[in-house]
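Worked example (supplementary).
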Amino acid sequence: MTIMTEKTKVEIIIDDVAYQVNADSNLLQECLSLGLDLPYFCWHPCMGSVGACRQCAVKQYRNEDDRDGLLTMACMTPVQPGARISIADPQAVDFRAGVIESLMISHPHDCPVCEEGGECHLQDMTLMSGHNYRRYDKKKVTHRNQYLGPFINHEMNRCITCYRCVRFYSEYAGGVDLAAQAAHHHTYFGRHEEGALESEFSGNLVEVCPTGVFTDRVFSENYTRKWDLQTAPSICTGCGVGCNTAPGERYGELRRIVNRYHGELNGYFICDRGRFGTGYVNHAERLQQPRDGEGNALTADAAAARLREIAGRAIAIGSPRAGNEANHALRKLVGEANFHAGFSAAEQACMDEIAALAADPAFHNPSIREIEQADAVLVLGEDVTNTAPRIALALRQSVRNRAFELADSARIPHWQDAAVREIAQHERSPLYLFASGATRLDDVAEAGVIDTPSGLARNAFALAHRIHADAPAPSGDEEENAARLAKIAEQLSAARRPLIVAGAGSGHADLIRAAGNIARALHKRRGNGERKPVDLCLLAGEVNSLGLHLLASPENSLAAALDKLANGGAENLIVLENDLYRRASHALVDAALNAAKTTVALDLLPNRTTAKADLVLPVTAFSEQQATYVNYEGRAQLAWQVHRNHSAARPAWQWTGDFAHFREALTDCAASAPAMARLAEVLPDTSHLPGGSKLPRQPERYSGRTAMKANLDVHEPKQAQDPDSALAFSMEGVPVRRDATLLASPWAPQWNSNQSISKFQDEINGPLRHGHGGALLLERGTGGAGFYPVPNAGGATGIELTPARQIFGSEELSARSEAIRKRMTDAYVAISPELAAEHGLSHGAAVSVQGEDASVTVLACVRGSMPSGVAALHASDREIDFHGLGARVSLAPAAGDTPAARALDRGLGELIVSDLARGD
Amino acid sequence: MVSNPLTRNIDLSRQPFDLAAYEAVDGYRGLREIARGLEPSDVLDKVRDSGLKGRGGAGFPTGLKWSFVPMGDDAPKQKYFVVNADEMEPGTFKDRLLMEGDPHLLIDGMIIASYAIQANTAYIFLRGEYTESERILRKALAEAHERGYLGNNILDTGFDLDIILHTSAGRYICGEETALLNALEGRRANPRAKPPFPQVSGLWGKPTIVNNVETICNLPGIMAWGNDWYRGLTKGNDHGTKLFGVSGKVRSPGCWELPLGTPIRELMEVYAGGMRDGLELKGFLPGGGSTDFMLPEHLDLNLDYDDIAGAGSRLATGTMIVLDNQTCPVGMIGNLMTFFSHESCGYCTPCRDGLPWVDEIFRAFEAGKGSHRDLAILEEHVDYLGPGKTFCALAPGATAPLGSGLRYFREDFERHISEQRCPYRQ
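After joint prediction of all chains, the assembly is encoded as:
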């Protein structure tokens, strides 16, 4: 949350025992860091103290001789050297019991039917505070609940008015549509009217709320108690950030996703794509059986034999959404020379630059915790909220560093949340956005640059030149922004910890090269004495984009593969978890697939590529297999298998590889690709496990073991074995709480909710006590490269085509989840009002976008802040030939009554942007 | 010499003095002193030496409060001065008299105070229901602007001051100075944690002083006639005069300016005319709804901060609510509890959820359903809602009449229980 510096420790005395604690903290946080049980509600490790709930009262004594002491709220009391406090003091105990009794006055006691029951902080604190008999016999306050969209249920009657929800939603995450309303004991937390919560982080309300006011609506529809969920440490596969998650399964269905704490990465929060976007795992159309091109089912053995038969004369296309082991096994099967990356041309170009910059010693790719410490940020062309949402949430925190400086000058401790916000008002550390329209970070950003992607690149190259004269300057057509660029250059140069953000989501490698030049210019400005690397955050598009890029040689692009097939350079094709129609022009993919003698597709859901395959091999989803993924930082992380897939689906590496166990696939991958050398470090150290014993995936209280399959067989089935990992599909084994690195679902005595994580941290907000799993793979070289040359402006005319990313809809698999679909827009092209007027288009009307080799019909989305030379196309889940359009397009109104236009029935209502220019 | 500096110009039978009439009776003398070169630190020294204490309820020394504002070249350029005119304390109607009766006295005082802390923007946070005060103040502010006493470079001093009159949207908690600041910023009127104090981080995070109307109305006199005169006004330990009010079943309820240290009996019997025929004094809240009851035996104490504190109560706003022997004390306290529970901002738990329970119990007593069990819960809440337990002083204020009422009128509570009805009701 705040800047990490060497912490000063002081001694305080708690109930006559001396402890060393952090000097710049408050008593509650330090008590919790020490592992002491002190109940609380309104305090949150990431949101600091506000003193609202009064639950953490302790007795504080002036000195050794003071026997009376004074009650004080631990969360609002700064640590003072030599402070003497008591948690056990009878008056403090009484007061805390009184507070919990007050909080429970109107609480409905509906725990048996409440989704929070069993992992409810309110239950835990009620028990801890000793309130177990209701004395209040008057009328309770009741509220009306609201419809808050497909993600979140609202049950206000359970509210204990801790204000955490609005503090997270509005203050931490910048949401504008949830607020505290009314007053006294009628205080109400909701929207101004019913409707879907707009924030991309609304799902965190489920975990921030200490009781069951905000619950996971998707989970509720298919609900299971926490203790009945089988779980394991996992990684979100929604984007390239690699947030740590804990999926929960019961009866073979993936029921929910919750955050899994990682001190360097996601901390306590994940985005709504990550939380609600895994419904595809339970999709009715999941591929379950190998089949041939005619749709005939094959046995696994027959399918495997067929694969081996064609593999010798095959080339392969890997997948950025598949793990390293799957990609490696396929690479090994066909040989390195025949393994291709499977990125689109634009993604490939971006990833090539990202990988090059990732090896440069001048730069450092910051973790989320480090991003939060940046005091001046430039985001270059990447719509971070929609491509790597958790990073956007971190950038929103980075602008608060100015507030902490102001607080320091007024001697206000950083944890005094309301006071820090008050003194800061609208003062922020600078965040500059170079974008082609309004973004969801505009409310915390300074005036940046709005232009077409090529215009942004030009401005960015000019900015690099302004920072350091060695950086090449574009030929001077950036005059209109001269003053602004000068200011940005000055702010970035003056910053203690500047950060440049760009990514593959923009689809423009020039922007990444420009980001490289800016970061290099900043690095060159740094004195020789402190040539620390500059923070350059380059976002890879998908969960394993970077891992895939490390495994495929640069010349083996998707384009090369398609070309080899179409021109007879290869006979057969094996496609790993990749719908090629999303990656290349439909004409090229068709030509290649038609030319291939045999096409094998391994995937988990049917798509346009599997439809054309001669052999389809079903693979397991992320929660049904073990895999490692490399995130944007180059951090390899292990996602454990949570549950089994009972169909014929297998992890792809089992179809294509000869590895007996996952561990062999992983170690072989590590051994065969130099960049993956450290991959094996992600495997847990299980040496402390007594011979052969395992860690349970199921809580000790897991129920139904003997009953849940009794409809099939009354005999208790043998417990499923997991030869691939240190975890067991059982509640038996060594309790997970012994090793925090293997922790999926924290639990500690008296702490059943997610708040129990504090029992596993070194200190509040610190690393887990046994460290975090994962290994940083990338080694920086020794010699830095030079500046990139300024790209050719070129003489191209027409409207620049750029991808428009949406948190809900742009990612292939999450877009097939039921809940996400309810928040998806239809395919659209975002254009400026001028462009719309020029072509006679109004917002929401059908428009034909015409390019080089294709034309597509989508909805026109008119956005007031866009420049006129650009069209931002969002394909949603429509079969749109994005890559067939080429770099420049033209627009024409499309008749509304054609089948193509009529199919666009989802509308644009779910689009949350500030600059919609609704014509109607 | 003037002996009633707060009310000397007030005659409710006519319109209040306009600027010219106010100036004709020594008004705006402080401003002219400033124009002659008086430094802000001189004003501060003078006010500190006067011994003026805040008249809003807490009685904190005004000069001391001002002295916490950062001054000098390193201090933030933007500072604010705010007058708390959100007079909502039950039984209190003294600030209204000042604003309706002599608006220029307040503006005069605000200029002095703003100059002392070098605030260029001042606010009057006015209770929304005080529409007559609003009308009168707006007229007076326009006059002061017209005359050049407000605006830029006032009387060539280089000092700028704008006064903005803000009418509150309501709620008692807005009288709490930090909640007032939040309300003024357009946010929920929840109090703020202290520290940081408003003098360091107040309105919009800038150094801010919040003073009560009556406090500020003391300043013109101090500037005009000096501290020797000011100290001479009192009959007791604290300096100056004060507005004292009496409401309840007395012969002539009202509000009067009296020297501090005047005996309570004199206020009650001479000014308020004693109890109405056939009624006896049973007790009184000396300083508004959030002060402890006092009894007839306390009548010979003086209206002085320390004397009243010695009897376990607070002088607070100095506006007394009288309880007679034919009015049910349980009903009276219950009425206050309804008020306080409704006016809780809802921020901290004991206040938000404790007061409604207390209120419900009083309603049960009224309805003839009183019980010893509930009485014990009331007693618990006196401690549970007391000072140091809650986020601000609202709930501790509510426990003042509750705790003292339970102590002094125990028998009345007991009768409600034993008779299962209100014994005062026919």
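Two points are worth noting when inspecting this output. Chain B has a mean pLDDT of 96. The interface with chain A takes residues 171, 188, 192-193, 195-196, 200-201, 204-205, 341-350, 352-357, 360-361, 364, 373, 377, 380, 384, 388-391 of chain B (CB under 8 Å).
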